[in-house]
Structures are given as C-alpha cells and as structure tokens.
Specification:
The chain has about 625 residues and is of the alpha+beta class. The chain is built from 16 helices and 25 strands. It starts with 5 loop residues before the first strand and ends in a 17-residue tail after the last strand.
C-alpha cells in the first residue's frame, strides 16, 4: 500500500494507520477473506460480542459479504441493520472498522449472509509482538529442543552414513507469538535448565506433519508441581524473514482455531489443515500376515485417495508424497517410497493428456511448501523437456520418463536433514554452513541408493543438479566432461524453477529476467539446454504476467501450438492502478487485446497468479 492511502491514527498511544482509499480497504478486507480470519463484532448499544467471517469482497461496487453471525441470535441485529463495528487480527496486525450496517440479507446453503458497504476507513495497528495465541489443550503441537547432529561418517565406499538426530528435550507448545513461545516439558527441569539457555536447533511439529525449524533461548523456567510439568518461556533466536512469516501464519491459524472452538459452531467449522492429523494407515487384520514397517507404509500410501482425472488432485497427491518422505526422514521412519512411484505414474499420464493444466498447477506456488512443490515442478519439467527432445531416442519411452519424474520428485530429499536455520537463511552462508548445505546432494544419493529399485538416473539427478560445467558446483566439483546430459538438464531446470518461484522472504523473478540470467550463465550451465527450455516453455510461459497496450495486465493461462499466449486472465490495469474483474480472454478472438507489449513483474503490483485457480462468475 502506498503512503498516499495511509494517515497516522489520531488515537493517543497507538502506532497505527488509518486506511481510507477504496483500494487500500479492498486489500485489507481481501486479506481477511483469503485467510478466513474471524471478525469480532460489536453492535451499537449491545454489550455482547459476536463472530463472523468475510465471504467475498467487491471492489467496483464497494461492498463485502459476511457469513452468518455467531451466536445465531446476532442474526436479528444484522437483519434490522443495527450499526456495528469489528476488530480482527491478521498476520499479527489489528484491523478495526466502525459505522457499519448490513444493507442486504440472503440465504446461502441454509445460512444467512449479509451485504455490507465498505467502511469509510480501517484502522490498521501493527501489534504482532504483543499478541500471544494460546494453544487449546486438545491440540497436540510437539516441540523438540536441542538437536545434536552426529558427525557424518563414511562407509568403505566413501558414501555418507546417515545418523538420526538426538533431542535433548521434548514437550508441547502452549502459546505462540511473533517473538517467542511457551513450552511445557514433562518433569522438573529447574536445575537442568537455567535462564538464557540457548538451543540453536529446535523443531515445532504440527499434527499434519509440517515442521518449523528454528532457534530458541529460554527466558523463564517455572515448575507446576500439580501437573509435574516445567514451563519454558522462550524467545526466538535470529528469525529470518521466512521464519518470521511462517510464525505469523501459525499465530493467525491459532487465533482462528480458538475463535472456532469458542464460537459454539466448532462442529460444522473446518479445522485448519495445519492442525488436522494425517490419516493413519489402515489397520492390519488379525488374520493377515504381519508386515514390516516399510511394507505397511507403502500399503498405506497406496490407499491414499486421488482422482486420477483431476489435475489438482494429482498435483496435490504428488506434493504430499514428497512431504511425507521428508517427514519420514526427519522422524527416522521407513520411507513410503512407493508413494513417490505412484505419483510419478500419475504425473506422467497427466503430462501426456493434460500438459498445460499440469504445468499451470506447478507454476502457482505457496511459500510454506517450497521444497515439496519445487520437487514436483522439477519432476514435471524434466519429463516435459525430454518429451520435447526429438533427438533423444528415449523421449517416448514410458519407463525412462517415469524414472525421470521419480528422480525429480526425490532430487532434494537430503535437504530434509539440513537444519532449517541454514536452509532458510536469507544472507550468505558461512563457510561451515555452506559445507553442511552442500552435503544435501550426497545425503539424497545415500537415501535413494538404499531404496530397492532406484534407477541410476535418479542418483545422477540427485547429485549433478547442483554441479556446474566449470567445476564451481557441488558436491564433487565435477566439470562438463564428467556430467551426464540429464545432469546438465537437471541443473538448468533446478536453477530456473528456483529463480522464478518466490520464498517467504523474497519474490520470484519474472520469467523474462530468469531467461536472461540463464543465458548469461554459459560458463556454468549448458547453453543448448537453456535454449531448449525457453523454446518449450515459451517466451511468455504459463503462469507469467504480461502487459497489453491499454495497460491491462493478465496472467498467461494457456499457450497455442507455437508456444505463444492463447488464453490470458485479466487482473489489473497499471495505468489506472485498479484491479479488474477477473476475465479470461482468448487472444485470437479478442482483437483489442491481441498485442502483448512486454512481460511484467507481479511483485511490482502485489499480484499473485493464484487467481488462475479461481473460478469465474
């Protein structure tokens, strides 16, 4: 938001801003809508407080739609257009508006919804550092403190031997803020843990398997004799922007979870995906022959539901397959490697039948799942480029293509064993940190070499995607003559995907700029593969933002046979600086929009190609 739309709040003692422009109000309300953030409602002359959520925001007509009010007797107040105000917390910020009243009421799916005109202003107060989100006691969020990574040892063939980490303490998360957390650990630890004890490597593990790696320093130690639990008040160590955003996201989700639990409507309100436990594998029949853990994991993975005809379902299955493997590595469990093979089969079939739909899904990314979505994207592009390579006799060999996709899905598994403080560091790595980071390729090779049926091409991709033609890569500093053709291709694809997709601490590069940088890396990357990549993906690839002569901006949805934009979704006009109603235009049949004048950077306009997944109308 630009400075022109903000004024300092006049309330004494606050550090907030008053957002008055329609665009600014639209953006704030859209944030609340996108994250399903609860609104705390206060009606004029009514003592009680109520809860609702925003269902839709209409910029052009200046109104938003609100869900039913809880408790339900608040419906009468809304129906009578009694004035109200709301408070809400999003990403650790407080948003408030007053002078509101419903201007319309309708019934949707058996529940009332309300039409409310935009407020004249929204008070926006940054107070992340003060808000502590409690964790309900039925919610099991594990915290591990003080990981010790044993030194890497090597076998007789000079391959690294992976040893699992050892944790000093394990407990449960009791509250969370932007600056720290409260952890309960069994037993009396007052003599063992003093104030200011630091743990550089810790894990917070959520019920769905998502893990946040960070550092903590203990600021307070207290013991509850009745519960026989030690409470640790902890402060985060050296948060980078990526971790900061992850924690802010969890704080918001915990706030929503508490609003859900206390609203009286918990039975029908979905639990956050973050707090939804993974479904356990099907229980064995007593008459069934006992299986070992690896067989059970594979059997459980084969029973996962997936709609093989739905690209979104297949893509989600593949992302989950990679995430499950990483989680199993971190938890020292046997790998359900068959799930990755099944994902490879489904992705290959989809690539051959619905290529552009699948490519689109790999281009729409979420920052908190970067590692898993990056792996799926690399897998799909490896096979896609191989299909395009007419000089390769294996380009139509299904076994070869299946192995390629499997290689891409698993090429970064070793990163799951690298500390998050190194993986997520935004600045330059120290020499020691770089050495640890560069081990991920060797770890991946070791992991895959232990899995029965792993093809040689997967081992090549795992290590050679980080090598460079001039020997400046890692882990073995191989030069061009020592690299396989598929290793050189994997390096180009890995760099391209990493460049063009954002992290929590930075936006991705526009595709045109990424192409330019790749072409300038002739000493490190194979130029012929870079040129092939550009030809196959197109100058304006699927998912990229383009500008038309009239100032309209749109995301490319599909390409024609010549790999030029065919279907574009309009989202914004940079001349008027206003969002546009979402509209898909087919360039061949829409003369007013036939001429694309330039690529554009979505970050410049705070746009996201997530809108490509939204339905129209």
């Amino acid at each position: 938001m630009g400075n022109a739309e903000m004024t300092q709040s006049q309330q004494p003692g606050t550090q907030g801003q008053v957002i008055k422009s329609r665009e600014g109000i639209y953006r704030l309300l859209s944030r609340l809508k996108a994250q399903h953030t609860p609104l705390k409602l206060a009606f004029d002359s009514v003592a009680e407080h109520y809860t609702s959520m925003i269902l839709a925001v209409n910029y052009q007509e200046g109104y938003f739609l609100m869900d039913e009010v809880m408790p339900s007797w608040g419906d009468e107040l809304m129906a009578k257009a009694v004035g109200f105000s709301f408070d809400s917390f999003h990403d650790g910020c407080k948003m408030s508006a007053e002078g509101l009243r419903a201007s319309g009421r309708a019934i949707k799916d058996g529940s009332p919804i309300y039409k409310v005109a935009f407020p004249d202003a929204i008070d926006f107060l940054q107070r992340r550092q003060f808000y502590r989100a409690p964790v309900r006691y039925s919610l099991n969020i594990q915290v591990r403190l003080g990981v010790v990574h044993p030194p890497v040892e090597y076998d007789e063939f000079n391959n690294p031997i992976i040893k699992p980490p050892v944790w000093a303490y394990e407990g449960l998360l009791r509250d969370l803020s932007a600056q720290g957390c409260q952890v309960e650990v069994p037993g009396d630890l007052r003599e063992q843990l003093a104030n200011h004890t630091e743990f550089a490597d810790c894990e917070v593990i959520f019920p769905n398997g998502h893990v946040i790696h960070l550092g903590l320093v203990v600021r307070h130690v207290g013991y509850d004799e009745n519960k026989e639990l030690t409470g640790l008040g902890c402060q985060f160590l050296q948060l980078n922007p990526r971790l900061d955003r992850q924690i802010s996201f969890v704080v918001t989700e915990l706030q929503r979870d508490n609003a859900r639990a206390t609203s009286g409507h918990a039975a029908t309100t979905p639990v956050s995906e973050l707090f939804t436990p993974l479904e356990p594998s099907a229980k064995k029949s007593k008459k069934e022959k006992p299986k070992d853990e690896a067989e059970e994991a594979a059997a459980g993975a084969e029973q996962d539901e997936v709609d093989e005809r739905d690209p979104s379902s297949v893509h989600r299955f593949a992302v989950n397959a990679v995430q499950q493997l990483v989680n199993q590595l971190r938890a020292k469990q046997p790998l359900a490697i068959q799930q990755a093979w099944r994902a490879a089969d489904l992705l290959l079939e989809l690539l051959e039948q619905q290529r552009q739909e699948l490519i689109l899904l790999t281009r729409v990314r979420s920052t908190h799942q970067y590692l898993y979505e990056h792996s799926v994207s690399v897998a799909v592009m490896l096979a896609d480029q191989a299909l395009f390579d007419v000089n390769n006799p294996k380009s139509r060999d299904k076994t070869y293509l299946r192995n390629l996709i499997f290689a891409g899905l698993c090429h970064d598994l070793g990163k799951g064993l690298i500390p998050e403080r190194i993986i997520g560091k935004t600045g330059n790595l120290t020499e020691q940190e770089a050495k640890v980071m560069h081990k991920h390729s060797l770890l991946t090779r070791e992991i895959l070499s232990r899995q029965p049926g792993t093809p040689e091409i997967a081992l090549q991709v795992a290590t050679q995607n980080c090598e460079r033609l001039d020997g400046s890569g890692h882990p073995e500093h191989l030069k061009s003559l020592s690299l396989s053709p598929i290793g050189k291709l994997a390096a180009v694809i890995d760099v391209f995907d990493a460049m063009t997709n954002g992290r929590s601490y930075r936006a991705g590069l526009p595709h045109a700029l990424a192409y330019k940088r790749l072409l300038g890396m002739g000493q490190q990357l194979e130029a012929s593969w870079v040129q092939q990549l550009i030809k196959r993906q197109g100058i304006f690839p699927i998912g990229s933002l383009v500008a038309f002569e009239q100032g309209h901006l749109g995301f490319v949805k599909t390409l024609d046979a010549a790999n030029k934009p065919q279907l574009v979704r309009l989202v914004y006009n940079k001349l008027t600086q206003q969002p546009l109603p979402l509209e898909d235009i087919e360039l061949g049949s829409a003369p007013a929009y036939e001429r694309i004048v330039a690529p554009e950077d979505p970050a410049k306009y705070q746009l996201s190609n997530q809108v490509l997944l939204d339905s129209l109308g």
